[in-house]
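Encode chain A's predicted structure.
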Amino acid sequence: MRVEQKGTSGFVNRMMRLLDSVEYRRIETSEDLEAVARIRYKAYDQIGLAPKAGSMMIDDEDFAPNAHVIGIHYEEKLVATLRIHHVTQNQKTSLATSCFPDVMAPLLDAGRSFIDPVRFAADPQVVRDVPGIPYLTLRVATMATDFFNADYCLSVIKPNHKAFYQRIFNSRPMVEPRYIERFSSMVELYGSDAHQELQGIYRRFPFFNSEAFERRMMFAPASAVGAPVLTVRPTARYAQARIH
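Encoded structure for chain A:
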């Protein structure tokens, strides 16, 4: 099913076409995690952040109860990955709570919930050839925000990345930048208010949108989904057609 995006930019149309060649997969087996680790290594090595050769780049936070590791496949090949944590008062594991506990604790105590997307990684060679892949990787964050009805989608970022998140998600700083030892650099915490921003994001960038059944296949407990989820096809076109 093809729905032409009338009145939208060429960029949006290119992203919608690219979605036709993209699949999402839940990363749950050791074999899948090894593949994710290789993508992480390629991406971080490209910018000089990879650890010593041989490290598989899998950490304890990949196995936290509130963690969801997702693989993005282009033409049936794993090319990118993102991990999200659904952060609540009962499930606090996340990069944001680790780096900014003084900011996050009062918000969690007040009942706020968050999506914290981290460990973004994409195969550098693929991104050179298909520069839209990072956008479709971040689509996982909007789907998770929607599925869990989170109050905010967070971004723990270095200062040189903040313009991107301001432009795409209308994210705003939640605290002054601070030096984080584990990154050996200044780091900022940005947040996008989902109740105010999510629908506007969908209007500007409809490729971030999705149908409820796609979100359920991505994030619902396996017991609630039924059969094992092998591949999740994007539903942005259907969601956009329903709106119009």
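The longest helix spans residues 30-46.
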